[in-house]
Amino acid sequence: MAATTTATPRRAPAAFVVLLILATASGASARGDGNGVYEPCADATVSRGDGFTFGVAFAGRDAFFSGGVQLSPCDGRLPLQNAAKLALFRPTVDEISLLTVNASGAGDLTSAGGYMVAFAGRKFAARSPPVFVGNSSYTVTGFTLVFEFHKGTLQNLFWKADGCSSCSGQANFGCVENSCAIKTSSCRGGNGGGGAGQVDCSPGIQLAFSGTDKHEAVLNSWYEVSKLKQYSLFGLFSNLKDSLAGQFSNFF
Ligand SMILES: *[C@@H]1O[C@H](CO)[C@@H](O)[C@H](O)[C@H]1NC(C)=O
Ligand SMILES: *[C@@H]1O[C@H](CO)[C@@H](O)[C@H](O)[C@H]1NC(C)=O
């Protein structure tokens, strides 16, 4: 499997001070990319096989709301300056990908506030609900992010909790918001978690695509992901060096 480095957008969203978070995507292949939009805060209409740029902002839960309404991190009204850390990705539409956020260069992600929101677009301004990443007690390291497109325009972004059956009864795990969460004390210091342990707790994000592209072709990696889950999707990525997947399979 060829690992590719994430393309960096030409401009970062204005609302952020972009801190250094190295992000890598695996599984993205370069078939003709017909999407010329590289900014996460701009609108793109995509077809299958195009690249699609989106961002993930890390901050406290309240930082994503203004007047009780959750706004896109692209919205300048949010007080995210200095508070948020940002990772940018450009996966291939309708291709199963596992993204990892290497947080070790930027310090502890949980210190950014412990929640993350995925976002893309300006007019449509899709943003996921905030999802718990970690605090000094627990750290969640595996996420599934679902992209819902309609005729190639992103309508919706949401996290799909995988449940806690894979970690139930494991001494070093708890169940937080219906996801397996490792005790932060088991995490390697400064790398996502901040504990004194050995596990790389950098978050890994599994992507799934649903809906239709601009030619109204059906995106079906969502179907593939739900079908594969029963055979442990993480196993698919076990050849990813230094990845969350490797860490997990060693741990269980
Ligand atoms: C993560 O970043 C650190 C510091 O920049 C680097 O030393 C390390 O090799 C990186 N790890 C991966 C898996 O890319
Ligand atoms: C960490 O988050 C979990 C889940 O939301 C919560 O139960 C726990 O009290 C939090 N711990 C701290 C130290 O904030």
UniProtKB/TrEMBL annotation:
<dbReference type="GO" id="GO:0046872">
    <property type="term" value="F:metal ion binding"/>
</dbReference>
<dbReference type="InterPro" id="IPR044248">
    <property type="entry name" value="DPH3/4-like"/>
</dbReference>
<dbReference type="GO" id="GO:0017183">
    <property type="term" value="P:protein histidyl modification to diphthamide"/>
</dbReference>
<keyword id="KW-0732">Signal</keyword>
<feature type="signal peptide">
    <location>
        <begin position="1"/>
        <end position="30"/>
    </location>
</feature>
<protein>
    <recommendedName>
        <fullName>Expp1 protein</fullName>
    </recommendedName>
</protein>
